[in-house]
């Protein structure tokens, strides 16, 4: 096993050869278990095709581009591009999460999971991106062609913020505008409304690009704190108590007087079946709802569904399940919602004074 150049024996998620989850260590499935999963899926013709079309709509390019250049007048908004890729426009900063615009989530152009729907915005339709957040190195979250294209965007490259160990991957492609973070470390940038803090937070997952680099680089989610919006992106994750700990850790900066909890959480709701295989790495809808509560998020957007058929549930099942469970649990319809691919949701700007008066 290669040596971990970032190894710190005082940190429980560090290992001499890489990284590991703290609460429940990740145990890779055996070849026999992988074959059992694929055999069962083939025998039952899983995943079944969607019964309803995955919702799509033409993006509101006029609003997106006007908002992108509005500086301090930018209105907080999120646009779902597909899978885990979203455009967040907050605090005068344009941010992409885990950008993948390629046809396949694969190291190969001719094989591997392929898109069932095109991206909600094409690369050429994006505004200039200021910041790219990469949660881990799996092919459906870190895409070579998309990273290269963003690096050469008009107006100069964005700032990439990545977990420990991934900077070398970008450097090998000539991409130097990269900041590496460990869990709970912060990268700060100055937006037109004031400082924006990006914190890498734990996720219950794993990493690998090939057969010999499992767990060699870190993974995680992101908590982003701007003057007019606090938002959260979970990346890929199984359920853990870390989300309750995050709420406790951020309590001082998310008091009622400071505007309360996250204004929006981007949470995965797809790629969860079969549970015996996926529970250690991907949440299902029930667990995503629990994360929403654990974080104390005001609203959540379901992502990581409807684009790549990576697991055994139909592509259209996650939002249907979310609607049923949300209704049963008494959630307001817009508290935990989904968007059509290409859809934009405008958000209320964070108003600490108003929220303090509501307490």
Keywords:
359 residues, alpha/beta, Metallo-beta-lactamase, Chain A, 7-stranded mixed β-sheet, 9 helices, globular
The overall average pLDDT, rounded, is 95
Our count of helices gives 9
In CATH, what is the homologous superfamily? Answer: Ribonuclease Z/Hydroxyacylglutathione hydrolase-like
- Give the CATH architecture: 4-Layer Sandwich
Name of the CATH class: Alpha Beta
Structural class: alpha/beta
Polypeptide structure, described:
The structure is a single chain. The protein has a single domain (48-358), classed as Ribonuclease Z/Hydroxyacylglutathione hydrolase-like (Metallo-beta-lactamase, Chain A), CATH 3.60.15. It has nine helices and 16 strands. It has a seven-stranded mixed sheet with strand order 8-7-6-5-4-3-16. Strands 9-10-11-12-13-14-15 form a seven-stranded mixed sheet, covered by helices on one side. With 359 residues, it is an alpha/beta fold.
């Amino acid at each position: 096993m290669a040596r971990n150049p970032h190894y710190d024996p005082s940190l429980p998620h560090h290992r001499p050869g890489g990284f590991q989850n703290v609460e429940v260590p990740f145990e890779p499935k055996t070849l026999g278990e992988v074959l059992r999963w694929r055999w069962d899926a083939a025998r039952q013709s899983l995943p079944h095709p969607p019964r309803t079309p995955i919702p799509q709509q033409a993006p509101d390019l006029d609003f997106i581009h006007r908002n992108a250049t509005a500086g301090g007048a930018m209105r907080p908004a999120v646009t779902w591009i597909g899978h885990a890729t979203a455009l967040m426009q907050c605090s005068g900063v344009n941010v992409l999460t885990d950008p993948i615009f390629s046809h396949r989530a694969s190291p190969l152009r001719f094989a591997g999971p392929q898109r069932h729907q095109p991206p909600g915005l094409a690369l050429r339709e994006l505004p200039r991106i200021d910041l790219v957040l990469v949660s881990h190195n799996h092919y459906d979250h870190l895409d070579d062609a998309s990273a290269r294209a963003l690096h050469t965007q008009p107006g100069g490259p964005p700032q990439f913020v990545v977990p420990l160990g991934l900077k070398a991957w970008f450097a090998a492609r000539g991409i130097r505008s990269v900041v590496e973070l460990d869990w709970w470390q912060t990268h700060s940038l100055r937006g037109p409304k004031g400082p924006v803090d990006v914190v890498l937070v734990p996720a219950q997952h794993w990493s690998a690009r090939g057969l010999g680099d499992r767990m060699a680089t870190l993974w995680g989610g992101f908590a982003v704190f701007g003057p007019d919006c606090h938002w959260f992106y979970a990346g890929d994750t199984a359920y853990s108590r870390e989300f309750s700990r995050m709420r406790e850790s951020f309590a001082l900066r998310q008091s009622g007087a400071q505007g309360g909890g996250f204004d929006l959480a981007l949470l995965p709701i797809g790629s969860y079946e079969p549970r015996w295989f996926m529970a250690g790495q991907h949440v299902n809808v029930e667990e995503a709802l629990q994360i929403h509560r654990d974080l104390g998020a005001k609203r959540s957007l379901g992502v990581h569904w409807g684009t790549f058929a990576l697991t055994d549930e139909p592509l259209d099942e996650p939002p249907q399940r979310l609607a049923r469970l949300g209704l049963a649990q008494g959630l307001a319809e817009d508290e935990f919602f989904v968007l059509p691919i290409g859809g934009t949701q405008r958000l209320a700007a964070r108003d600490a004074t108003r929220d303090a008066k509501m307490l």
